[in-house]
């Protein structure tokens, strides 16, 4: 796996953020997000899903990601591998880490929480997954989730299942539904074929980023 580590200015230990990509894999979009978080003062690691590959072919992406999304233990393995790298960075405060993920990366962030990892916050965009029985109760931090109202991959039934799972587990959760937005609305347009129901929404992309930054400011401030 080949991730992208962004380090803030200075020499002191800082809170840190894992950044998980959509199912197509790590791209410059997530690398830029990690860099932006470093500019805010966080150590940020945008982690890899496919061994350095970016899967621009939707069929290839689905063939790889659907089995992954059905295998919580494998998702946790990827998440823990990235978390180990982030914790080993000397600038990282290992007790102050959050996870932010998009699509498949968001599902991995949630599975880290369900595995009992001590995170300060979890944010998931387009990754509204439910856990195995009893495991969502192991999440010990606030969870923020964002989804487009017109996302056919995360339809209302999936949203309802996610919120019911969070509520039953007693998690501190929030869900923001961005009106008129499709799946992966946060992701700038790409020059390859995408799945039906995928599309960029510039205004909501900016709003979702601000919501994520606000969550970090609340749960993982640069100075305590």
Structure description:
- This protein has 224 residues and is α/β, with parallel strands linked by helices.
- The protein is built from six helices and seven strands.
- The chain has helices at 28-40, 58-69, 72-88, 104-114, 156-169, 202-219; strands spanning 4-6, 14-20, 43-46, 92-102, 122-125, 143-148, 173-178.
- A seven-stranded mixed β-sheet has the order 1-3-2-4-5-6-7, sandwiched between helices.
- Helix 5 links the parallel strand 6 and strand 7 (173-178).
- Helix 3 (72-88) packs across helix 4.
- The model has no long low-confidence stretch (mean pLDDT 95).
The pLDDT mean sits at 95
Largest sheet report: 7 strands, mixed
Low-confidence stretches: none
Order of helices and strands: EEHEHHEHEEHEH
Number of helices: 6
Domain Dienelactone hydrolase: 3-218
Protein name: Dienelactone hydrolase
GO molecular function: hydrolase activity
Keywords: Hydrolase
Give structural attributes.
224 residues; alpha/beta; 6 helices; globular
Would you spell out the secondary-structure blueprint of this structure?
Elements: E1 4-6, E2 14-20, H1 28-40, E3 43-46, H2 58-69, H3 72-88, E4 92-102, H4 104-114, E5 122-125, E6 143-148, H5 156-169, E7 173-178, H6 202-219
Parallel strand pairs: 2-3, 2-4, 4-5, 5-6, 6-7
Antiparallel strand pairs: 1-3
Helix pairs in contact: 3-4
